[in-house]
Amino acid sequence: MRWTLRFALPALVLVITLFAILYIKYDQIWDQYNAPAYAWASLQNTFRGSTLDNPPPVLDGEGKVGDKVVIMAKVESENTDWVARNLPDWQHAIYTVNPSPSSSQNNSNNTLTTPINKGHESMAYLTYIIDHYTSLPTTLAFIHPHESGFTTAWHTDTPLHSNTDALRSLRLPYIQRNGYANLRCNWNPGCEYKHRKNEHVNKEVWKEVFAGASKSLFSGGGEEAPDEVGAACCAQFAVSRDRVLERPKSDYEAFRQWVVDTDKSDAQSGRVLEFLWHVIFGMDA
Fold first, then answer.
1. pLDDT value at position 47?
2. Neighbour count for residue 155 (Cβ, 10 Å)
3. Omega of the bond prior to 234 within 30 degrees of 0, cis?
4. d(CA 122, CA 101)
5. Is the pLDDT of residue 126 over 70?
6. Which of these, 41, 78, 110, 180, has the minimum number of CB atoms within 10 Å of its CB?
7. Of residues 87, 96, 275, 145, the one with CA closest to residue 199
């Protein structure tokens, strides 16, 4: 018995020490991925079925979709059938950023495309606003093409990282009152204090992006660049039509032209706008 205790106690201490080291080292990642909530929700769904199996919203008597639209960018290989299946009460604007030559020549399914494949999702977001500026729905939701998943959609702030659940639970009256809402409530990464002095939006980049924008009530537009810029990742948000229209169409054209002209890469230019969407739509930096 004594020999057992002599070996068991050190082993227990070693296990606890290793766990503590892992927790300290990966605490930010656990928080960022909301791992405990995901694990618990997955366990629950093992026994009672996923929320994604619930019936989709019922359309009105005339089968019309609502006065709201979901906008996203996708590569041609990504499957976005889940949008029509799970969000039938939303209008859909899904842009293929890398159409193959064959699909471009024979666009029988009226695939939406962007002028250039650059800036990640920002090119699709801005293209939709520019092309529909005079006929925007009341609510616009800008999201990524992945439906759910721990590794691909970790930044979607629902227990199972589900964009379906995020949009089904979106409080549209709040969007109309507030004008803008990031669909991620978790500040990690992007909005914590240590992230706000970021390399993506320095004073020079701020001035470049807003150089062609009108002077208005919004941050930017000729004002001095702030010392800090923070935004909860990862460029998924909802905005009201009225808030979009508070900027002239030429502003959005200027933002898109910056993406086209900048020397920054696809990822880098997209990351810049990821930190600036809330500013573009009238929120404090």
1. 47
2. 21
3. yes
4. 23
5. yes
6. 110
7. 275
Note the pLDDT of residue 259.
97
E strand or H helix at 91, and its extent?
A: strand 91-96
Sequence-ordered alpha helix ranges (H) in the chain: 2-32, 35-48, 81-86, 101-105, 122-131, 163-168, 172-178, 203-210, 241-245, 249-261, 266-274, 277-280
Angle (CA) 139-141-143 rounded to 5° is 175
Do residues 33 and 150 make contact, with C-beta atoms less than 8 angstroms apart?
A: yes
Q: Report, as an integer, the average pLDDT of 110-127.
A: 95
Residue type, 67: D
* Residue-averaged pLDDT of the chain: 78
* Alpha-carbon torsion angle 213, 214, 215, 216, nearest 10: -110
Instruction: Between 269 and 285, name the one with better pLDDT.
Output: 269
Identify the three-state secondary structure at position 34: coil
More confident of the two residues 284 and 169: 169
Q: What is the DSSP string of 181-196?
A: EES----TTTTSGGGS
HSE of 231 in the Cβ direction (CA atoms, 13 Å)?
26
* pLDDT digit string, tens, across residues 198-218: 678 888 999 999 988 886 545
What does the DSSP 8-state code read for residue 219? S
Q: Which helix (H) or strand (E) holds 69?
A: strand 68-74
Q: So what's the pLDDT on residue 19?
A: 55
CA atoms of 48 and 267, how far apart (whole Å)? 39
What is the token pair recorded at 103?
């699909």
- Find the Cα–Cα–Cα–Cα dihedral 23, 26, 32, 38, rounded to 10°: -60
Q: Which two tokens stand for residue 14?
A: 């070693």
Helix (H, G, I), strand (E, B) or coil at 223: coil
Q: Is 112 helix (H, G, I), strand (E, B) or coil?
A: strand
